[in-house]
Specification:
This protein is of the alpha+beta class. It has one helix and four strands. It has a four-stranded antiparallel beta sheet. The longest helix has 15 residues. The radius of gyration is 13 Å and the shape is elongated. The protein starts with a strand and ends in a 5-residue tail after the last strand.
């Protein structure tokens, strides 16, 4: 599977971000559902905690998995 995602501020994204604990299960479920083919697109909004400061920022991620004949 090939995943295409767009991030508005990719150049500013830290290498190690933490998804807010209250959002983690929902984000993981959205990702898993999409990769399993249960949803046509990934479209999820969630909070992250910035490294070092734990400042909360909102992220909106959209993506789509494209599969070939082999899945």
């Amino acid at each position: 599977a090939h995943v295409v995602a767009q991030h508005a501020h990719r150049e500013h994204a830290p290498p190690h971000i933490a998804i807010h604990p209250d959002d983690f299960a929902r984000v993981r479920q959205a990702r898993d559902d999409h990769l399993a083919g249960r949803t046509p697109q990934l479209d999820v909004e969630y909070r992250i905690l910035m490294p070092g400061t734990n400042e909360v920022r909102w992220i909106h991620t959209r993506g789509q998995c494209f599969r070939d004949a082999d899945g």
